[in-house]
Amino acid sequence: MQPPHGRPEASGTKSADSSGTHEVCVISPTLHLTQPTKLSSITLARARVVRASPLRLFAAPALASASVSATSIALRLASTTPASTRSFSTTRVSAMPPLPVSKAAEVGEYDLFVIGGGSGGLGCARRAASYGAKVGLVEASHRLGGTCVNVGCVPKKVMWYTSEVADALRNAASYGFGSDEVNYGIANSFEWPKLKAKRDAYIHRLNGIYDRNLAKDNVDYHEGFASFIDANTVEIKEANGEKYTVKAKTIVVSVGGRPTLPTEEQVPGAKYGMDSDGFFDLETQPKRVAVVGAGYIAVELAGVFNGLGSDTHLFIRYDAVLRTFDPMLSEVLVPWMEKTGMHIHKHSAIPKIEKTESGTLLIHQKGQDKPVEVDALVWAIGRHSNIDGLGLDKVGVKVDNKGDIVVDEWQATNVPNIFAIGDVQGKALLTPVAIAAGRRLSNRLYGGPKFKDDKLSYEDIPSVVFSHPTIGSVGLSEPEAREKYGDAIKVYKTQFRDMSGAMLDEDHKQPTAYKLVCLGEEERVIGLHLIGKGSDEVLQGFAVAIKAGATRKTFQDTVAIHPTSAEEIVTIF
């Protein structure tokens, strides 16, 4: 008998055939079962029905080609003895990831089907399933977690921490640890391949956690590339080329974005560079590296390379970086990046890239006679929505001239049952934003009347840049505020050296600068912009205050914590 939403029961039930075999539900099958396998007890974890004779388990057809890690399987085996004398035992090992749903699985129609297994899609799917909805999710990359987990926030933060360790080593002698000669030697002995192996293992573990969470929450996981057949039907193409379709009442597109690259027509030789995702595939550290771009990704990757000892060149179109942030942040950051040895090529235009016989790259610049020679080139010039091949045109989903899906404040497209969340809708490209939008959408669809008005506000979303030093920003920049409110704006600024550099030589002391933007007579804080050590951690609490409508008086009435950098925010007035 099928429980609600068409899911098989998770316990063995006696078969009526004469062979004495019994149906068993496999919850997380990750064993490659091609031979009859003797087992004394069974616990089964995720949605596959197989036939098992007493003490012998045979792979069902859907499992026969499954690749599985034997980390968690518990099987429960029904005995052929009468029910009155039947006994069960269980054997448990640690949890394993779910096997993707077979194309042959009889899933019926889903209440919700999510295209994309990134942070937003996972948040949306799991929240919907928690309300009892029948949910499926498809991911093409074979790795759950999306950009953030695999080639974004998480591995990038690992690299940022690594660069911070190198910086601490170089400054250790000022605090009485060893000598500059020894400490610089240690910092310069960094082994990129060793760290990459550990970082990749960490990411793989996170992928497994996402896998197991889907299994735990009863979300069917499909692997393959999805495209629309009609507004309620999605075709899934597996890696082996085979195709099948699934149907759903509601479909959510959460396919994220991907790096933008110049074409060979735009920049001959552009193909010799890698995109920002390729940074995480580097097996060795380039001695000389070029990063092209002025956004947060370019700034962060250039900072990591520079901090770990690569001779780093950053090519920017204008004279500032992070041009969508408050100008103060670039004004403080760029001189410090240059002071720490980074080569910043301002007002640069790259007409071509050449590859030498030795494999190095020559970066040509307009107006410059001599090219810059490097071992590796990273393009970090932006990102765009990953909608190619989705078949949005088949169902009439509107896309703007940048290739982003057009949605309203409820994440709804122009097609009534199709929604879009995350980077694919081109607004606030941040992991927590995608997660929040996905969860609120599922709350509204399946959580009942109390969530009928649940939607994400895109105002006062905090963001950070893992530069050296770090940056935190929430609310309106000063130019944005002045454009919107004119003379009703008051701005408070401070710049100082934080105490972490108290024992360092002047040339090694990182700058710190804070700015508050206030509105009206009550001076409500509508913008906060920070650069300096720890700004990424400091920002979160103040973002709550700003979201709650804190004013200058609120800040002034708060007793400072001393000695900290953060105290400057409440004593800045």
From TrEMBL:
Disulfide bonds join C148-C153. FAD binds at K157, D423. Residues 1-21 are annotated as: Disordered. SUPFAM superfamilies: FAD/NAD(P)-binding domain, FAD/NAD-linked reductases, dimerisation (C-terminal) domain. Residues 461-571 form the Pyridine nucleotide-disulphide oxidoreductase dimerisation domain. Binds 1 FAD per subunit. Keywords: Cytoplasm, Disulfide bond, FAD, Flavoprotein, NAD, NADP, Nucleotide-binding, Oxidoreductase, Redox-active center. The active site is at H562. Its EC number is 1.8.1.7. NAD(+) binds at G293, A294, G295, Y296, I297, A298, V299, E300, G382. PROSITE patterns: PYRIDINE_REDOX_1 (PS00076). It catalyses: 2 glutathione + NADP(+) = glutathione disulfide + NADPH + H(+). The keyword Mitochondrion does not apply. Its cofactor is FAD. Its main location: cytoplasm. InterPro entries: FAD/NAD-bd_sf, FAD/NAD-binding_dom, FAD/NAD-linked_Rdtase_dimer_sf, Glutathione_Rdtase_euk/bac, GSHR/TRXR-like, Pyr_nuc-diS_OxRdtase, Pyr_nucl-diS_OxRdtase_dimer, Pyr_OxRdtase_I_AS. GO terms for molecular function: flavin adenine dinucleotide binding; glutathione-disulfide reductase (NADPH) activity; NADP binding. Residues 110-438 form the FAD/NAD(P)-binding domain. The keyword Lipid biosynthesis does not apply. Catalyzes the reduction of glutathione disulfide (GSSG) to reduced glutathione (GSH). Constitutes the major mechanism to maintain a high GSH:GSSG ratio in the cytosol. PANTHER family: GLUTATHIONE REDUCTASE. This is Glutathione reductase. The lineage of its organism: Eukaryota, Fungi, Dikarya, Basidiomycota, Agaricomycotina.
